[in-house]
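README: folding subset

This subset contains proteins for which both the sequence and a predicted structure token string are available. Records are stored as plain text. Below is the entry for Formimidoylglutamase (311 residues), shown exactly as it appears on disk.
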Amino acid sequence: MYTQGNPQLWTGRLDSDTDPKQFRHFQTVQFANLEKMENVGEKTGVGFLGYAVDKGVENNKGRVGARKGPDAIKREFAKLPDLSECDMLVDYGNVSHTNDCLRETQQEMAQLSAKVIQQHQQAFLIGGGHDIAYAQYLATRDVYPDASIGIINIDAHFDTRPDEPPTSGTMFREILDNDDKADYLVLGLAQGGNTRALYDYAKDNDVIYVYADELLHQVSPTIKDKVERFIHDHDTIMFTICMDVIDSAFAPGVSASSVLGLYPHSVFEISKRIILSEKVSSISIAETNPDYDVDDRTSKLAANLIHHFLV
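--- output ---
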């Protein structure tokens, strides 16, 4: 079910009513109804759409609570200073799970996400469970029906399980098994988080991956080259981050915490190289779970990721 943005989430410290150089995001945000929106000819500004859904996490036997992630992240993002001075910042609200099955909710999210991608220079899709990535893919394929899609996922897990019904751990297999013009690159894999069967599937389907310990201290020229080649080889890039890739010392509030995860600055460094490409058509951030957070640490980190990604 789609609901419009909640202005009560967008509050913060007020330094000035009149000086834009002292504004924070809550002072520049706009609200709009995606169901009534018609696309304009030229993309402009930034659009947010939340995926307040953790049914996929539940199906995956994970700890639920990520449905609260979008509002928690927006609340923290609202407080941050408006340094980018983007032309437009629009909160379109959230999609929640009220359908009979998860696939119907993903399709609803996809239809609305496609409008955000078509309307804005940057489309941020905020989870919720990482099954948001399947909706993101459907939206990308809708907007770019003939394009080769490069999927870049910063994640501790492959999320290529063969389970049925769909979960937060199946979406990339669903994509790869049904779209021969989609390819997959995973950055930050946890060796303790993926079975041998998943590595076999990766080998059979030419999935490119980089382990977390290869990204811990700095991003090597070899890995930078791997990412840049992947971007070069595709028409459009679908970028997604699962917050469980970050070490639980920095991101405790996730659906599946990581004890040997990445440091936040490593995620910033590799992400900035991806975000700067004009081929990136959408960005999703998944698995923030406020029920398990400490001092809003994870939602603040996710909000700062988005804040740093604004171009």
